[in-house]
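Q: Convert this sequence to structure tokens.
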Amino acid sequence: MSKRGLGMRLSVGALMLCCAAVLAGCATSDVLPRGEPAYALIGDPEKGPLPVTDYRISPSDTISITVFQEPDLSLKEAVVEASGNISMPLIGSVQAAGLTTAQLASDLEQRLGARYLEMPQVSVIVNVAVSQQVTVEGNVIQPGSYPLGGRMTLLRALALAHGPTRVAALDEVVVFRMVGGKRMGGLFDVNAIRKGQASDPQIEGNDMVVVGFNAVKGAYRDFLQTAPFLNVFRNF
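A:
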């Protein structure tokens, strides 16, 4: 390749990277809160969970029921039937859908205490809430909606989507949430979270996580993919 052809090839690549850098700077969302304001909105696990409305059990949810000191009466994983019922040892079919975990636990205590146990203690936990999902979009390997299972954080949500792509802007990951009837958002730095320099924010049902695009990485990737075609500009 002649010096002129090589120079043109490098100039095109340099131009693409410069343009991408400008676009990346323009695309940075300064209107969304970062740092402490973002954690105040979404929730910092180190400062305790945000107050939320008690979740009501739905059909197809998976719950665990623990009867204190009665392992034979406990259920590690019980799937709520389409009818909204679950089947409990001794008691039989019990309505679960539409109740909070506290309400279901109280109902089971009354039923067990009426005939079988003296002052039973029951706890109920929702393991998988099918009706409560997190949507992960943007530059992740497998975008989509995923059911919440237990305590969910931003890193766990990204793991459900099989992680970010190579061109993801990990310092610009947005968590959107409906607050008071309005969609709000907070901007988080996943690199800092992975290094332990920032807390891993809590994710709630119906949150949306959007991973940004690193324009410089994207342009460089595109440049490498199209580089063989730039040979048409070389001198013969």
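The chain has two domains: 31-51+129-213, 62-128.
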